[in-house]
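Handout, page 2. Input:
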Amino acid sequence: MNKTIQQISIGILGGGQLGRMLIQSAINLNLNISILDPDKNAPSRHLVKKFTLGDLNDYDTVYDFGKDKDLITIEIENVNVEALKTLEKEGKKVYPQPHIIELIQDKGSQKMFYQRNDIPSPDFFLVENKLQISKYANYFPFFQKLRKGGYDGKGVVKLVNPHHIEKAFDEPSVLERLVDFDKELSVIVARSESGEIKCFPVVECEFNPEANLVEYLFSPANIKKNIEKDAIKLATEVAEKLGIIGLLAVELFLTKEGKLLVNEIAPRTHNSGHQTIEGNITSQFEQQWRAILNLPLGDTSIIKASVMVNLLGDFGYSGTAIYQGLEDILKFSGVYIHLYGKTNTRPFRKMGHATIVDEDILKAKQKAKIVKNTLKIIA
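Output:
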């Protein structure tokens, strides 16, 4: 007799904020969730009955965690893929599939995947060390991206001219040609085990130039209908060519000439989908469960225009987090606060996010700026 979804034992690798929000959504379906995370104070720790403290990159730890589970998923790509491959061979469902996680762990492999599959992406070169960068002196400027280990703007450096090579990483990297873009966009695609696909409407991202991570997100994106259609088509094509089961965040550049280029992809719930909790009929977190449990995918339509603002640790503060101004912003209608349960703050650390919904996107943007300027995370 087949198990019901409530009887399935599910393991999540990673217990950070994405794991926390996945669990919050899983509670509505009464799912049986366990977490593996290397941080004893992980944000998800107290939301599950079974929390395992351990290294996500250690083969034995990941294998031992997964061997009594029916289904294993992730909230972070930096995990031991070989252990997941073994679990998959032994009959465990691992979504996203291990070979897809492995490909996405390596930005060089990502770029070559785009190239092989005629997916438009910025031009690039692969280098093994800092010395090799000088061979491409005629092609500056670049963004140098570490092939492995980078996240949230870490592992990325802008190299404007050959004189900047001294600040380059001396590790295997991608040199990505600088794109003169008009907007940065994102599409989150869900693909279920049965092959059903649904995309969330395109969102627009505004980055913090210091931290090199998303500061604001606008839903819907301020783009023409044909661009929206093409972005969804391109994101769907990437998901289908990967054959992914689960969620895929596809980050895009819209060039000043109106061309769409795939920047990076992430095989999981993503920062560019947080506004879906209040702004869309189905949240990205519920959609992740629907996709990997092979349930009908949910309606992704927008309920109201929304703005998401990342709540980052203030510059100059490290230590136990204090949320200054929280009461002031809770007075506003349509403002939803999500704090991630992180005990300690540091400059630019993601401590939470706020979603502002309104019938009028301009009013939502105005409120978002007030939230950003009023709520300070200090120590």
